[in-house]
Amino acid sequence: MKDVFHFIRDARRAFIELLDTLTLEQLNEIPTGFNNNIIWNFGHIVVSTQGLCYVRPGVRPDSSQISYLSAYAKGSKPSYFVDQAEVDALKGLALSTIEVIEQDYEANAFEGFQPFETSTYKSTLSSIEEVIITTAGHDNLHFGYAIAQKRLIK
User: Fold this and answer.
1) Considering the entire predicted model, what is its pTM?
2) CA-CA distance, 31 to 80, in Å (whole number)?
3) Which residues pair with 116 in a beta bridge?
């Protein structure tokens, strides 16, 4: 799993590099044909990974510890202009939350994992390893959306 965690961190660093090439206005712009923007796609990967690893499998009782969840949860849409402080916080969380998940994985913190079905992929995730592997794909799906959105913004 070390390689998978490494890949997730590398992909998130690439996403952060993309963010760093854009202005706040560009990060917040919703391109024609989309219902979200680049910063929403980034925030979404940050919050959804925590929910998939801890809340959905019953490892933690609720999502109260997930910062920015309401703004970036599945089914949400951008509803306000994201400022630089929030962008910076999300960048930090993108990497720090993966570090914590990896530490918890190494400490066997996911022993009480309960399988669950994903609404996006319509498949049952039966182990934390499956969730972490799915995270890599999910992160890159949204990174791809952000790359496409960058081509459409001013």
Assistant:
1) 0.95
2) 15
3) 125
Residue for token pair 């929910």: 51
Residue pair 101/94 in contact by the 8 Å Cβ criterion = no
Q: Do residues 15 and 146 touch, judged by C-beta distance below 8 A?
A: yes
The predicted-structure confidence for 59-107, as pLDDT tens digits, reads as follows 988 888 899 999 999 999 999 999 999 999 999 999 999 999 999 999 9
CA-to-CA separations, 3 to 69, 99, 132, 133, in angstroms, rounded: 27, 13, 11, 10
- In sequence order, what are the beta bridge partners of 125? 116
Lookup: tokens for 25: 């206005």
Q: Which amino acid is at 56?
A: R
Q: Of all residues in the chain, what percent carry a pLDDT higher than 70?
A: 100
CA distance 118 to 115: 10
116-117/124-125 β-pairing: antiparallel
Angle ∠(42,78,84) on CA atoms, nearest 5: 60
pLDDT confidence of residue 77: 96
Q: Whats the size of the chain, residue-wise?
A: 154
